[in-house]
Specification:
The protein folds into two domains: 167 residues, Elastase, domain 1; 161 residues, Orthogonal Bundle (Neutral Protease, domain 2), CATH 1.10.390.10. Helix 3 packs across helix 4 and helix 9 packs antiparallel against helix 10. The longest helix has 23 residues. The chain contains ten helices and ten strands. A hairpin with a 4-residue loop joins strand 5 and strand 6. The strands form three sheets. A six-stranded mixed sheet has the order 1-5-6-4-2-3, with helices on one face. The protein has a two-stranded antiparallel ribbon with strand order 7-8. It is of the alpha+beta class.
Length: 342
């Protein structure tokens, strides 16, 4: 699968119902290009290579020069000075922050745990309204400037997409239905944690928004998604209203979007928010560690559902803090709070 940061339902809304013909055309072209990348995507190996401990990033930024071919022309390599192109240099910086986060928080060496080179392509297509992980690298559009700004802007967009790579090298969660929603949620969780780590924020200081600043001025929005309050991130006549539920009572059964992977991810997103804020402090240290251990511990089926994932996080918390630990009880309460557990 090709994992995009902007859900297809947002672009479909623009393509079908927006009065502006230019925006409709951009949305349709973005959907077509994203579908083509999904078909062309090459699979990563499920089993990761042996972990290494050298922790030296290896970044390459390529410029597609508004064409639709990957990887494009290499314009900045690891250790090279700033290019002078703000988009190139932002992509380079955010790859580095993501690398540094996983090293500092979990002693993970890049996406595969063994120093995988981190490759990005910027200026993909013309007015392309998305960013995605294609199984080998990051790809960023420049946005249309009316609804979406440049996709290199928010750090958590880069973090979110790179974590799809980590998921594929570890739990390899199938990108459909509840396992797919968990795949999306895990990327949101660590995308938010990367931003919180970079800003030095505690759980109560964080905004818990995904893609804050990505939507352009004039769009009625806070972000693409809210982990704290799913369903409240945007409500704009051109993009529609945020459809994410935050509780199983409102779970959306749909054949679209691979069974609603970008929609129902709001439920495990809120569960993480509840657990992290109850534990307090820096969210990557306790709640994030529990989720990371769950993702990487080899206990998940690739088709795990919400209930199975919840049980696995409780098991991870129990291993770290004991069955009666406050952190373990916070995880239990979080899943009860979103209706996944009783």
């Amino acid at each position: 699968m090709r994992c995009t940061i902007v859900p297809p339902h947002m672009l479909e809304q623009v393509a079908q119902d927006t009065d502006d013909p230019a925006l409709r055309a951009i949305a349709r072209r973005t959907l077509v290009l994203s579908a083509a990348q999904r078909v062309e995507r090459r699979s990563l190996p499920v089993q990761p290579p042996a972990p290494t401990e050298d922790f030296v990033p290896n970044r390459t930024i390529n410029d597609a020069e508004n064409l639709e071919q990957l990887p494009g022309r290499a314009v900045r390599a690891e250790g090279a000075p700033a290019s002078g192109d703000r988009i190139v240099d932002q992509a380079y910086e955010w790859l580095g922050v993501t690398f540094d986060f996983f090293e500092a928080a979990y002693r993970r060496n890049s996406i595969d745990g063994a120093g995988l080179p981190m490759i990005s392509t910027v200026h993909y297509g013309r007015d392309y309204d998305n960013a995605f992980w294609n199984g080998e690298q990051m790809v960023y559009g420049d946005g249309d400037g009316t609804l979406f700004n440049a996709f290199t802007g928010p750090l958590d967009v880069t973090g979110h997409e790179l974590v799809h790579g980590i998921t594929q090298y570890t739990a390899n969660l199938e990108y459909f239905s509840q396992s797919g929603a968990l795949n999306e949620s895990v990327s949101d969780v660590f995308g938010s944690l990367i931003k919180q780590w970079h800003l030095g924020q505690t759980a109560d200081q964080a905004d818990w928004l995904i893609g804050q600043g990505l939507l352009a001025d004039g769009v009625n929005s806070k972000a693409l998604r809210s982990m704290k309050e799913p369903g409240t991130a945007y409500d704009d006549p051109r993009l529609g209203k945020d459809p994410q539920p935050g509780h199983m009572d409102d779970y959306v059964d749909t054949p679209r979007d691979n069974g609603g992977v970008h929609i129902n991810s709001g439920i495990p997103n809120r569960a993480f928010y509840l657990a992290a804020t109850e534990m307090g402090g820096h969210a990557w240290e306790k709640a994030g560690r529990i989720w990371y251990d769950t993702l990487t511990g080899g206990q998940l089926s690739s088709t795990v559902d919400f209930s199975g994932f919840a049980a696995a996080t409780v098991a991870s918390a129990t291993g770290a803090y004991g069955a009666d630990g406050a952190e373990t009880e916070a995880v239990r309460r979080a899943w009860r709070g979103v209706g996944v557990s009783q």
